[in-house]
Every structure is written in structure tokens, then in C-alpha cells.
Amino acid sequence: MTLLEIHRLSLDLEVDGELRRIIHDVTLELDDGEAVGLVGESGAGKSMTSRAVIRLLPRGARLGGEVEFDGRSVPAMDARALRAYRSRDVAMIFQDARSHINPVRTIGAFLTEALVERGERKADAVTVVSELLETVGIHDVPHRLRQYPHELSGGMLQRVMIAAALAIRPRLLLADEPTTALDVTTQAEVMAHLDRQRRGRGLAMLFVTHDLELAAAVCDRIAVIYAGCLVEECPASTVHDRVLHPYTAGLLASRPSATRRAARLAAIPGRPQAAYEIAPGCPFVARCPYVVDLCRTTRPPLRLIGASRVACHRAEELAGQLSVGRFSGEERARA
Amino acid sequence: MPEPAAPLAVEVRDLVKVFRLRRSPGIGGGRSAAKTIVAVDRVSFSVAQGRSLAVVGESGSGKTTLARMAVGLERPTAGQIAVGGRERRWKHVGSRERRRRAREVQIVFQDPYSSLDPRQTVGRCLDEMLRLHFDMDHARRTERIAALLEQVGLDERHAAAYPRALSGGQRQRVAIARALACEPRVLICDEAVASLDVSIQAQVLNLLSDIREETAVSYLFISHDLAVVRQVSDEILVMKDGRVVERGQTDRVLDDPADPYTQRLLAAIPRPGWHPVADPESDLVTS
Amino acid sequence: MATAAAIAEIAAPVRRRRHIDPVIVGASVLIGALVVVALLAPWISPYDPNSANILATNQGVSAAHWLGTDPSGRDVLSRLIWGARLSLLGPALIILIATTLGTVLAIASAWIGGLFDQVVSRVMDILFAFPGLVLAMVAVAMFGSGPIAPVVALSIAYTPYITRILRSASLRERNLPYISACYVGGVPARSICSRHLLPNIFPLLLTQAALSFGSALVTLAAVSYLGLGVQPPTATWGLMVATGQTAILAGHPGASIASGILIIVTVVAFNLLGDRLANRHAVQGL
Fold it and tell me: Does residue A259 share a domain with residue A205?
């Protein structure tokens, strides 16, 4: 059953008195209990997409399109409905836990706040959050509850944040680069807890990250966003074998491997562009090695091909040939 | 690849750095006893001319402190550093001595947004280095600036640009060009690609390997990222809590890690077919 | 690849449009106009500011005297115009000396650090304890009244404000990698401070100068008002408020009000300017 439906989402923000496009066109659905990884480089609009889902947007933001949660339109919610939605249906996990947890209150106060707020007894709330902390791998819970945020490490705080998100028993988790600031071993640890709790509770998750490999490991489907446009959406299981968009292929090829040294990395030329910088054609046209005239004039719509949706005019003919080779060929031409 | 008998570019022996913390600021915890932290604990290594050594570790491993000592930004508590066979002194480092060191070791920092002077154009930034270290007239400097920009994949026209007009990747290229302007023996990259987007990271890594082929510069590559390290280093030094836990040829260490910590680091890297697992030791409860 | 990409990028550089702030423009124009008026005083003032006319004291607004006359029968407009000279010159000198001294101390403290920094900070702490006005009064008591003593005293009194703010800004800049890169690149300390640190704290310096100017103008006016600064019959705005006082009781507040308003307007202009410069700085810092 569809839990979250994002339909033709667009977003403009006011920058220096003028409207600037941040998201062009994102269409995405999440079923109950499903995890979708929203992957992109900086400025692609992936964070803003997740924020649009809970309307946590900067002042002066203009939202277009529709976001429906369980059949209810999020942009149309009034203040009371929005509050109820945020405190019961969705929970957000931010990248920087330290700046999202009040530094002058204890971990216990932070965790129980939302539960007490909605009318649960303090003692019950403490029991609930204590159990949650244990399930995310925190020992010595009574002591931790009395501590202040600065006494905990980054990885520990992020687990507290996850416990806080789980405490409100939401149906959807929004995780915005939850482990990007952490060391790699801590990341594995935090992700393991997050993943297990999410699956165990049957929560849906929108997982925003720049790390395609990480997303593929913990999500059911992967959505790749470039310059504010959704360019490909595919099952996580096929992302390594069968990608349909040249950008996704480029992302996979640029990342060095820890197990094998490449003679040369297959870098995508140019730099990631922001939504407001791109011309009317395909957003990836300036960096794509497979450009034809059509790409420059017409923005490709998302099309269903097999189990994937892809926004590329040449998806069918390129299927199966997208490879590291083309990008590295481009690279060699320079040398 | 140079011969194993190539002269040593850097040699570090028993380097120690102890930081004294006056008090721990913060809310709640009121104790203010003088605390010492051993950031680097008797670390030794050497890099031959033209070779590349990676120092790998997580935050708090002391790898950045090591880099800062090597480049003269931090003074070691004990131990020796020799660059090009010349022993470092730590007293009375005047500007003449610093100028000489600049020709030996240069560094590229992690954050491309704060490592360039926002009020200096790219050209003036490179020109400053050239004036300082070489006796060149204006025309030759202009020529050299163009060559440096070309070397890092930028254009002559970028010389007139201020950093704010450049993307993160371009800024990092400028920072590399500035370091190369001094023609150092050793280039230290302190997480130099960590904050770049994946596609840009690949470009810069390729650039760094090109530079090594062209100039025979040695690299000291500080990184937390084993995949990046595999790509750029010949040898590897794994640090944990200020100590070296494992060292060896990059391929050997990454293919067949001996130390449990190195094994954990490797196991934590997301890759096809990977799934995150929590360390059983720090996990009491199973659901 | 790199060249093609680079060319594509230079074709569309991230150009930041300079937003013109009407408040900055307005305040600057007003301040500029005051300076011009002060400079042109001999040519534009309708009367000699010091020529008293016993027959025309405390006159109201008229075609002959646009802002009336004061209790000694001097033309208020002419005195305001001439008064602008010392009223603006005094604070200008104070700010010039205080910012120069403050900037040098701030950058030196941030760069040298250690004992030097601690000594400078402690001395500044001590100076903070003396209000500017008190310091000025002490200086007058020691060196006699006149324009010099209060200006020197206030310069010293304003130095710690400038030093404190610029020191923390310099310290912040100093710890940024671009300064480390200069150090590693072998750039001499003096060049790092003058060519890299100074330009980067300059916007803040300007902001502080503008904000302090307004405050210095008021304090100096107060010194004049108390009769400790410039002596009559020389015109300054602060002195005019004082000499107009007797007329207020007689029902002719014109001279006091006119000079008072001018002080307020000038101070507000400087404060707005400083405030907006600070905002702009904060925005650019993002």
C-alpha cells in the first residue's frame, strides 16, 4: 500500500530577493515498510526533497506539485494537522545530531519530551525510551539518560537520535545523511541498528545520502537525483548490474574500490550542477558522454523500463552498454 | 615506479605529540583537572622520493596531528623529522627557515572553502608563492602560473577569478596548484578529497596520480577512506589512538590485513553485497 | 576532460549579484553631505558664526535667519554649518586613532599569541573599566580644556572596543587553513598579517568604525556640553546645545533643538550604516 506519494514536486527558494529553483521534478512513491534511498551529489536537492515531505522548509519557499501521506495532502495541512503529522506519523534523523539535540538538557529529557508532550506518563515514557536505547546498542541506560549531549560521542548521539525518532512510533522515517559525519566503523554500527529496527518495526524510510553503496545496502529501491530532477529509480538489488541512466553509471564508476586498484578512475567530467543552472534539455546534458541532439532540446520524462524508471532518451539503446569504459575513454582523451 | 633505493624524502623517528588541555569546557561536567592527551605516540616512518605513503585512521587517531607536525604547523613533543636528509630544528623558526621548508613540504587541506584567501584571485595567490621562492620576472611568472593552472586541469582564465566564483573541486585544484608552485619534495594531502563530491573526487584523485608521474613528488596521504588510499598509495600506515597498528605495502595490507582494527575498518566499507553489522561487543540486546 | 569542463564552468561562473542596500546608500549620502557642508563652511554659511548681534537675539525662523538666532544674536544655521567641522573632525580623529591602534593590537595579539596576547587582553580589560566620558574629564583636569585632551582620552577609551572585536575575528581567521597555507608556503609573518589577515577583517573593521563613530560623536558632544572641550565662542553642536539652554527657559528652544536634532540624525546615520554593514558581513560570511 502506498504510504507516501510525491508527485511532480518542485521547489523554489528565495535567495537574495529572487526565486531560485532547487527542485525541478521529483516523483516518487514509498510503500508501507519500504526503504528508498535518495542518492545525489551536493546541491542536487535530495535533502530539500526529504524536508518537503514534512514541510520543514526555509521561509519564502514555494512548493509545487503534491506530497501525499497516507492519502492526505501535506502541503494542504493546517497548523494543527501538520503538528499531529510531524509528532506521530513521520520522524526525521538529521546528519548533525549534536546541533539538533538541546545541549543544556539531559538525554533523558530530550528522549521523553515528545512522549510526555502527547500525554504519556513520565515513568512510562522513561521505560519506553530505555528499551529503545538498549535496542540501538547503548549500554548502561540509566546513566546515559542522566548525561548531557556533550558527554556522548557522535556515534552515540546519532543512536540517541534514532531512538528519539523511533519513540514516537512513526510510520515513516526520514534519514538525512545520518552517518555522513561519522567514522566508517561507527557508520556501520549505527546503520546496522537503524536498519534492524526499521525492518523489525516495518517502518518505511526515505534515506537521503550521497553514498550509493550505502544506500544499496540498506534500501529496497534507489532513486538517483541530479540537479533537482529524478533521473533514475531502480531496485537496489540491480543497481550494480543494470543501471539505465548514464549519471548513475558514472557515479558507480567514479567511486574507487577498496578491493581493487583502478589504473585510472572513471571520472564524470565537469562538476555537479544545481537545479537553477540547467537548461531546458536533459539536466545531465553537459556531462554526459552519450548526448544526442534530442537531449539538448527536450527534457526526458521518467519512463518505466523493466523494474526501473529512468529519465533518459536513449535508455533502451544504451541498456547493457553503460559502463565504466565510456567515461574512462573520455578521461584518456585528455592525457 | 622508482627503485627501492631511492633517497628518502621524509624520515620520521619516534614522533610524539602530547596536548595539554587546561580544562574541559561544557555544561554539566564541572571537573577541570589538567588533562594530557597523547595524540601521536612514537610514530616512525619514511617515504622515499617519488613514493606515496598513506596514513589511515579514524577521527582521533592522530593522523592529522602527524601531518601538521610534518609540515611545521605543530611542534613535536619529542622525536625527529628529517626532510631530504636535513634534520628539523624547532627553535627559532624564522621566515627564512620557513621559506626553505616551504620548498620541501607543502600541504593541501580538507576544506576547499576555507583554504583559499577569499580576497585574493587565483593568479595573485600563485604569484605570491612564485615571487617568494623564485627569482622570476613578471612574464616568466605569468607563464608559470598558466602552466600550473594547466597542470591541475584549470584554465588560464581562472587566474582572474576569486575563490567564490569557483566550485569546491576547482578550489581544491587551486590549492594543489599553490602547493606545487613551491616545487616541494613532499606533498601532504590531509583528507584532500574527503569533502568533494564523488564525481569530483575521482577527478582530483586522477589529477594527483598524474602529478606524481610528472613531477616525482612524494605523497603523504592522510585519509580515513581505504578505497581512496588503495587508489593513491604504495604503502600504508594504519593508526589508532596515536599509535601505528599496522604497516606495509598497500595491496598487502588491504588484501590481507593482519591487525583486527584494520580488518574492522575494511569490513565497514559499503560495497556490493555488503550489509552493515553492529559490533557484537558493543551490542548487549538482540531484538 | 578537465579543460572542456573548466571552459563550461567559466562560461557560467557563480556570479553573486551585489544587492544595493538603500539604507547604506541613504546613510552614506547623508554623512557625505555633512562632510561636504563642513568643508565648504566658509563659502556656504550665510553669516559669520561668531558675530553677535545684541539687537537680534533669540529670533525665530525668518527669511534672514533660516533657523533663527541664539541668545547672543548669532545665526544658528551658520553656527551649525561651522560647528559641523569640529563636531565631525573630533570623532573622526578618535576613530582613526582607535581603529589604527586597535587593529594593530588585535592582529598582533592574534598572531603572536601567548604572553603578549594575555598582556594586551588584560590591559584592555582595565581600560574597559573607565567610561570614556570619565577618562575625558580626567584628561581635561590634567591637561586643561581644549580640543586635544578629550580627543586623546577618547581615542584611548575606544581602543579596547575595537581591539576586542577585531582580536576575536583575527583569531578566527588565523586558524583557517588559508592562513596555515600561507605559513607553510613560507610567507613572512608581516605579509600574512597585512596582506591576508587585514583585508579579511576589514569589513568588520569598517562596521566597528561606523558604530563607534556615532558613539564617539555623542560622547564628545557631551564633553563640549559640559564645557570641558572646545571653548566658546567656537561652534560645536554639543556646545550649542549648552549655550541654547538659557534660551529654552526664555521660551526660545530653537538653537538647542536644531543642534540636538543634528547630533541625533548624524548618530543614527552612522549606526544604521554600521548595522547594515554588519548584516552584510554576516550574510557574506554564510
Answer: no
Per CB-CB distance under 8 Å, the chain C contacts of B170 are 6, 9
Q: Is the pLDDT of residue C10 over 60?
A: no
Q: Is residue A107 part of a domain?
A: yes
Residue B21 lies in a domain: no
Inside any domain, residue C52? no
Q: What is the pLDDT of residue C7?
A: 34
Q: Measured between alpha carbons, how far is C36 from C261 in angstroms, rounded to an integer?
A: 19
Quick one: pLDDT at residue A114?
86
User: Is residue A37 in a domain?
Assistant: yes
pLDDT of residue A5: 94
Q: For chain A, how many structural domains are there in total?
A: 2
Which of A179, A200, A224 terminates a domain? The answer is: A224
A314 and A167 in a common domain? no
Task: Take residue B86 and report the three cell numbers written for it.
Answer: 636535513
What's the mean pLDDT in B209-217? 89
Question: pLDDT higher for C48 or B44?
Answer: B44
Domain range enclosing A111: 2-224
Q: Do C6 and B153 touch (CB under 8 A)?
A: yes
d(C-alpha B279, C-alpha A158), whole Å = 16
- A268 in the same domain as A205: no
Residue A267 shares a structural domain with residue A166: no
Pairing state between β B186-190 and B105-108? parallel
Alpha-carbon gap, residue C83 to C233, rounded angstroms: 11
Beta-bridged to residue A30, according to DSSP, are A4
Check if the beta carbon of residue B46 is closer than 8 Å to that of residue A166: no
Euclidean distance between CA atoms B1 and C17, whole angstroms: 50
pLDDT at C284 over 70: no
Tell me the pLDDT tens digit for each residue of A249-274: 999 888 888 888 888 888 888 888 88
Asked if C200's CB is within 8 angstroms of B109's CB, the reply is: no
pLDDT tier at A214, thresholds 50, 70, 90: very high
Q: With contacts defined as CB-CB under 8 Å, which chain A residues touch C284?
A: none
Q: Which of C10, C17, C178 to mutate to test the interface with B (most CBs of B within 10 A)?
A: C178
Cross-chain Cβ contact B109/C7 below 8 Å: no
Q: Is residue C193 part of a domain?
A: yes
Q: Is residue C11 part of a domain?
A: no
CA distance C170 to A42: 30
Shared domain check, A279 and A201: no
Would the CB atoms of A270 and C8 count as touching at under 8 Å? Answer: yes
Question: Taking Cα atoms as reference points, which of A197, A203, A205, A106 lies closest to residue A159?
Answer: A197
Whether A130 and A174 share a structural domain? yes
The pLDDT of C225-246, averaged and rounded, is 79
Residue B241 in any domain: the answer is no
Q: How confident is the model at residue C275, as a pLDDT?
A: 87
- Number of domains chain C contains: 1
pLDDT tens digits, residue range C168-180? 999 999 999 999 9
B123 neighbors B147 (Cβ within 8 angstroms): no
* CATH code where residue A17 lies: 3.40.50.300
Residue C114 lies in a domain: yes
Average pLDDT along chain C? 83
My answer on whether A282 and A219 are in the same domain is no
Mean pLDDT score, A177-202: 90
Specify whether the CB–CB gap between C118 and C77 falls below 8 A: no
Range of the domain at B142: 115-183
Q: Does A192 touch chain B (CB under 8 A)?
A: yes
Q: Which domain holds residue C156?
A: 90-252
ipTM of the complex: 0.87
A208 and A252 assigned to the same domain: no
pLDDT score for B5:
57
Name the residue among A66, A69, A99 with its Cα closest to residue A2.
A69
